[in-house]
Amino acid sequence: MKRILITGASSGIGLELAKKYSALGYQVIACGRNAEKLAAVLPAADNIIHCICNLNSRQDVLVNMCKFKKLNIVILNAGTCEYINDAQSFDSELLQRVMQTNVVGTGNCLQAILPNVLAGGQLAIVSSVVTLLPLSRAEAYGASKAALDYLTRALAIDLAPKKIDVSLIRPGFVATPLTDKNNFPMPGIVTVERAGEAIIDGLNKRRREIRFPSGFYCALKILSLLPSGLWHRLARRMVKI
Prior knowledge:
Blueprint: E1 3-6, H1 12-23, E2 27-32, H2 35-41, E3 48-52, H3 58-65, E4 71-76, H4 92-113, E5 117-126, H5 139-159, E6 165-171, H6 192-204, E7 209-212, H7 214-224, H8 228-240
Parallel strand pairs: 1-2, 1-4, 2-3, 4-5, 5-6, 6-7
């Protein structure tokens, strides 16, 4: 039985992936920080093991995650999103919270699990298409995901000799408890079921970059090719709207 470890498995994309991989016959190590919440949405079973830890605590991660050996796939999905509503009154504590969870928390997991990924195995890190363009209020979230982009691509180079394939996952808007908080239009939003299918298909094909939905990604990619001054004016106009 192949083993897959998934962080952020108590809701959203992580929960959907845990369910899908369990149904495919994998032994799923589902990671979350709230034991009761995880048990309620994804009860432990013969092929579902709970790993309870706070990814922001390096010691907690090392104690609880290192024990899982012989991993075939690791998906580091856990993350958070907060927006800077007033840039002039910049909230450095908010920036620290987002970077701590999305970047440092991912680093804590990497230290714990990378020695246990088998040759021929896979590592996937969830970023976002938001890194294609600077967007209003996304200073903290976008910066954290841009850091994950670079981290993932550098790891792909250094882990290749170890025969570990690395994939960067870049979703658009996905209907999850995290995006439920958004009070603005979310073009191209997809269900967690669709997100799960796209990720599993991409990992099966060992793609270095998994991005979806394709239409939304392509639109942002085209906009990212505009001169920076033109995009700045367009983005300011969008804020006024």
